Amino acid sequence: MKDRFNLYRFASPATFYPLAGAMIPYFAAVSVVFGLAGLWLGMLVAPTDFQQGEGYRIIFIHVPASWMSMFIYLVMAFWAAIGLAFNTRLSGMMAQALAPTGALMAFLSLWTGALWGKPMWGAWWVWDARLTSELILLFLYIGYMALTAAIDDPKRADKAGGLLLLVGVVNIPIIYFSVKWWNTLHQGSSVNLTKSSMAETMLWGMLLMAMCFWMYSIAVAFMRVRTIMLERERHTDWVKAELANIGAGGEK
Amino acid sequence: MIHWNSFSDFLAMGGYGLYVWGSFGVTVLIMVVEPIMVARNRKATITRLQRQMRAETRAENRNTAE
Q: Which is nearest to A116 in space by CA: B8, B48, B26, B44?
C-alpha cells in the first residue's frame, strides 16, 4: 500500500522542487529542437501565400504566441480553482510562476499582430473584437500580477488573484470565438480539427513552433516556480537544507 | 527544397522584411531575455535567503549562549 505510486505526492513543494529542476533542461532542449525544425519549415521551406505573399510568415510566431497566451491563462485559472477548492500550497505558486510568461505571450500576440495588420489591413491596430479581447487578456495578466504583488500575505494574494483569474476566464472563449460571433477584420481560424486551409509545410511549421512555445513556457515557468518555492517555504527544513546545499556548491 | 533563391531574397521577405523581422526579432529578444531575468532573480533570491538564514542561526546561537 505504501509503495503505491501516488500522484498527490508531487503536490508537495518538497517533492516537486527537485522534479521540476531535473525536467527544465529537457523542456528547454526539446523547445530548441522544435523551434529549429519549425523555423526551418516555416521560414525556408514553406511556399509563398497566394494572398499575403511572404508577409504571412509572421503566422509562425503570431499563432503560437496567441495560443499560448490563452492556454497559459486557462492553466492558471485551473490552478486557481484547485487552490480555492482544496487550499493546496503549490497551486498559487504555479499560477504566479506562469503569469509573466502568459503576459509576454499576450504581448507578442499583439505585437506580431500589429506588424501583420499594418501591411495587410493598413492599420497597426483596430478596435476589432479579436484584437480588443486579446488586449483585455494582457490587462488581465497585468492585473493579476499587480494584485498578487500588492498583497503581502501569499495565501491572501493567491485567493484574491485566484478569484480574478476565475472571473477573467470568461474572456478566453470570447477571444477564441470572436472571429465567428462578430464580423471582424481579423481572419478566421486557419486550423481546426477536421480541415485546414493551409499548405502542409505551413501547417507543420506552425504546429512545430507552437510546440516550441509550449515547451519554452513550461521550462521558464518551472524555473520561476522553483524560486517562488524557496521564497515561500523558507522556514521549512527542506528549503533550509536546499539553501545550505546550494551554498556548498551542490547546485548551480 | 529551399524556397529562397538568395540570402538577400530571404532578408527582403518579398517586401515584408521590416514586418516579418520586426516580429521575429522581438520574439527572439523576449525568449532570450526572459530566462536570463528569471535566472538572475533566482540567484538574487537565493543569496538573500541564505543571508537571512545565517542571520537567524546566529541569533538563535546567541540566545542559547545567554
A: B26
Contact A47 B22 (CB under 8 A): no
Asked if pLDDT for residue A251 goes beyond 60, the answer is no
Decide if A149 is inside a domain.
yes
Residue A1: the pLDDT is 45
Nearest CA among A227, A86, A96 for reference residue A151: A96
Q: Residue ranges of the domains in chain B?
A: 26-66
For range A107-124, the mean pLDDT: 95
Nearest to A54 among B14, B27, B41 (CB): B14
* pLDDT tens digit sequence for A159-215: 999 999 999 999 999 999 998 888 888 888 777 656 666 778 899 999 999 999 999
Q: Is residue A3 part of a domain?
A: no
What digits encode the pLDDT tens for the residues A64-99? Answer: 999 999 999 999 999 999 999 998 889 999 999 999
Q: CA-to-CA distance for A218 and A24, rounded, in angstroms?
A: 8
**B31 to chain A: which residues are within 8 Å by CB?**
216
Closest CB to B34: pick one of A58, A101, A231: A101
Query: What's the number of domains chain A is made of?
Result: 1
Could you count the other beta carbons within 10 Å of the beta carbon of residue A91? 22
